[in-house]
Amino acid sequence: MSLAQVHYTSAAPGDEGTGGRFTAVGPGVSGALLSEIEPLLRYELPEGVADRPSDGELRSLPQAFTYAVLSDGSRLVSRSTPVRATGGGVGPGVRFHAHAVHLPPGVPLPGDRLPVEAWRSPHWVAVTPGGAIPDPLTLPPGPTAVSEGLDDFAVSRGPWLAAVLADLRRASEPTESGGWPVVLVERQCADVARWLGLASVTLPRESAERLTFTTYTRRPGSSAARVVGALPEDAEAARAAGLRVHVCAGQPPSGGGTDDAWAATAARVWRSRSPELFREARELPGEPFAAGPLAVTALCAGIVLGPDGRTAAAGWAADRPYALDAKRTGQLVEALTSPGIDDRTGPEFDAVGRLFGALEGRCPAAVTAPLAAMLVTEAVRGGNGSLELPRRDAFVGPEGAAVAERLAPEILTELGDTAGTRSVARTVQLLRVARLLGVDDTDSLPGVVNHLAPALLAEAAAEGGTDTPGFAPALLELLDEQFEVRTALLGALDRIAPRDPGAVARFLERVALPFTGTQALPHLRMCAEVPGAMATLGGDRAAVWHRVLRAAGLSLFAEPLVLRTAVGLVWEDRAPTVEEARLLLDAATSDAHRVAGTWARLVDAALGAPAAEPSATGPSPASTDEAAALAHDLLRGFPGEIGGRERAGLLLLDLVRELRTGAPDPGWAETVRTLCAQAEPVEPALRERAHAALVERLLAPDRPGAELYDFVHGDDAELIAAYDRTARTETVRTRLRTQPAYAADCFTVWTAHPHAGESWPPVAAALLDEVLRPAVRAMSAEDVAEVEATVGRTGSSGRADAFRTWNRSSTLGRLGRRIAGRVRRG
To answer: Where do the segments described as Disordered lie (predicted)?
Structure first.
């Protein structure tokens, strides 16, 4: 089919104000299309062109070879080239001529060639045909050797190859037109065309056809093409416009790489001068730009690839184990396991592991044995704990013996090093490989397990959260494979549990260890039981404790350490209450608590018991009595274990018990002060409890006078303040109102020591005025007389006179206030 042609040339002399004119237009090209075509054909000379260039200089000027898609779906292939002029035009001595071929929608170039294949055609002309223009004009595509010399060009552009191919691939995607172009900076526009030739061979045809381009422009930012060529002097302007620029005409880039595995593999194929592999790769299943098919084809052809390419090849083959014949499968395995490779990565080994799993059983052992050997060698020497190891039967025969002989010393040496910081995953991997290769690690197993057990807890805690730790799947496989390791490891964890039962319980919630066999493992069973018990029984810690103890399957009298584990699981980082501590003390003997070390928890419970909450009727000593009784029993049960400040605190509690229920030794106030000093830092609640017990006893009707005298003259501000608070409680006020003898006694005490230090006199005066006086006012005359008589009997006539004077001043004060009120009302 003949194709319509268009000729366009720069303005002739005297055509000022015009950029150019059409000199020939073939049939079928409308005026609307011409207005769209004209900007594509215009040409702008590079900077610094001589006014009258020589023939050589004229030939060296760039040509703009362009391929564009027009708005109606038709396409245009054109060449704009500078020509010598007699005057006027673009420059004094240079004009340009554009020759274009219009391709209607759906009509290809002759021979179904790609547009870039026409760039070297000899049928491009630099003048408009004279005389009558043939109708229609024809333009055969000319030589199709677009690939001629591309190998050499690709090798010369090696540093830029992968990055440019990656961008050309992205530019060929079926996205909306009008995006920013990829700019290729070359000194010769022919080299830009060669880049496009590389793309036409590398990309699938439909992608290559989407690459609109021009090999030369002064204004890349305003071009609608997807790929544009530019000279070095225009590169900076292209960068400033935010375009993706590849300067292929200067110093090679420092990196030059790309994270596009397909592009990196394609670059290696070109550098190996094997472009025919692109066609072979497209025959394999997979996405057009998946790296796997191309990487497999390259490796089978003997081309050396990097780790990303090898990973892609192994992953692709693992997903399609039947896509390759036996010959290519063997070639791929040989390439992947080559001993000369020293840059393998974790993802590559993972992909090779998947490939081994896909091929095992489908291919002869001689084919898969190198993969198995590579995997176990990496597991030992590379420390890759995520590898999926082969089965034991993969190493039956001389291959397995050779691998075992090579790796056994390394495995045993590392397993024997228990002083290092070997990770759990590493230890598990070594144990699994040892069994896989038949290495006897019996002698090192006890040390390995003693190192592994605490590492399990530490690494799980370091990961945090509630998810399964990363090492768990491999660990569970190890325990399932090796009975002796499972037995030893569970035993070691059971021995650790009493020291940190909470950590073991949290670990078992995340890793379901298989300890349902015949091993006793009482501590592990308790740790596994506690989450369910707490969820079922809620806040009843005593019930949880009993249930956890039952899960142990052993009596705490036979194995006292289960007592420690149970207490640590239920109370962990907090002390039991006094009631719970009493339960624990009564549930086991002091010897069991002594062996288990749980007596310290009981001491904490006694010393940390809260002070009595005050009520409307005064302090309630019930809880403090329980704590004091517990302290008494602890001092008696653990005399050799309890010492220091804890012993002083318990003695203080025991004194509280005696102050409230018995007859303590003389010197109460001094004893309280001494024990508080020895128990420093004493718990505030304990100090408050001791002070309250002392002053309650000193405010009792039967308190010894000597103790009261020592208390008053001790001048202890804290104790006197506690006395003041207790004397103001409703219990004391009621007793003052209803018991004249008690009121007389308090009057005597509160007036007997007017010069006893600094703290007592103001407190006593305040109590007389604010506590005793209201109580006496509320008494009947007979009770007041009894108070006065009692004061006289227990003291002297002078003290009785003092009471009458004190009470009369109170009465006169009341009368005076009544008279003043009447005067004000009058």
So the answer is: 1-21
Contact in structure between 502 and 569 (CB atoms under 8 Å): yes
Query: Two tokens at 760?
Result: 């007592």
Mind giving me the DSSP string for 588-643? S-HHHHHHHTTHHHHHHHHHTPPPPPEETTEE--HHHHHHHHHHHHHHHH-TTT--
Q: Parallel, antiparallel, or unpaired: how do β-strands 244-247 and 182-185 relate?
A: parallel
Kindly state the tokens that stand for 219: 């204004």
What is the H or E stretch that residue 83 is in? strand 75-84
pLDDT bin (cut points 50, 70, 90) of residue 521 is very high
Distance CA 376, CA 386 (A): 12
The pLDDT tens digits for 315-365 are 999 999 899 999 999 999 999 999 889 888 889 988 998 999 899 888 888
515: Cβ–Cβ under 8 A, 6 or more apart, which residues?
A: 490, 521, 524, 525, 528
Evaluated on CA atoms 378, 380, 386, 388, the torsion sign reads positive
Task: Confirm whether pTM is higher than 0.70.
Answer: no
What residues form DSSP beta bridges with 245?
A: 183
Q: How far apart are CA 826 and CA 822, in angstroms?
A: 6
Query: Which tokens in the block code for residue 73?
Result: 């779906």
Phi, psi of 306 (to 5 degrees): -80, 180
Phi, psi torsion values for 101, nearest 5 degrees: -120, 130
Cα 710 to Cα 717: distance, rounded to the nearest angstrom: 14
- In whole angstroms, give the CA distance from residue 369 to residue 662: 87
Contacts of residue 535, defined as CB under 8 A and 6 or more positions apart, other chains included, come to none
H or E element that contains 97 = strand 94-103
CA dihedral sign of residues 308, 309, 314, 320: positive
Number of Cβ atoms within 10 Å of the Cβ of 183: 26
Q: 618-619 and 614-615 as β-strands: parallel, antiparallel, unpaired?
A: antiparallel
* H/E stretch holding 585: helix 578-587
How far, in Å, CA of 625 to CA of 685, rounded? 13
